[in-house]
Amino acid sequence: MIAYRPGQLGSSRSCPHCKATILDSAIVCPGCRHHLRFGNEAAEQAAAQERRTAWQVEGTLEPLPGEPEIEYCIVVTVQDELGNEVARQVVDVGGLRGRDQRRFTLSVEATPPRSLTAARKGTS
Q1: Exposure of 11 by Cβ count < 10 A (0-12 exposed, 13-18 middle, 19+ buried)?
Q2: Integer CA distances (angstroms), 8 to 45, 52, 55, 65, 116, in order
Q3: Is the residue at 1 inside a domain?
Q4: Pairing of strands 52-61, 102-110
Q5: Exposed, middle or buried, 112 (CB in 10 Å: 0-12/13-18/19+)?
Q6: pLDDT of amino acid 74
């Protein structure tokens, strides 16, 4: 895993609510959706933040006809431009019986770093 220093592009910290690793620049935790910054400045930053979904995939998992039950394991792997594994995480495991099903959505949100957003708007 790549370690970034605080204030550096991609630097991270733990969410005080759910303990997930999040970007230092996050105003709302993408995991638990709790607000991390409050006040007028945070509200202005949230409104000005150019968030986009860079990539998303959805799917449904259910036993095939003739399969009474199945087990599943969801693994997310992140690789760099050279194909080196940067992170790997088991997100969930479970089992399905009969007509049970699970719907999965994986999305990647992208935002310019806060300092770049402010620079474009002519502020610091």
Answers
A1: middle
A2: 18, 21, 24, 51, 12
A3: yes
A4: antiparallel
A5: middle
A6: 92
Which residue type is seen at 80?
A: D
- Helix (H) / strand (E) containing 39: none
Between CA 45 and CA 52, with CA 49 as vertex, the angle to 5 degrees is: 160
Here the tokens at position 43 are 């509200």
What are residue 21's phi and psi, to 5 degrees? -80, 125
Q: What pTM did the predictor assign? A: 0.61
The domain tally of the chain equals 1
91-101 tens-digit pLDDT:
899 999 999 99
Domain extent for 46: 1-56+113-124
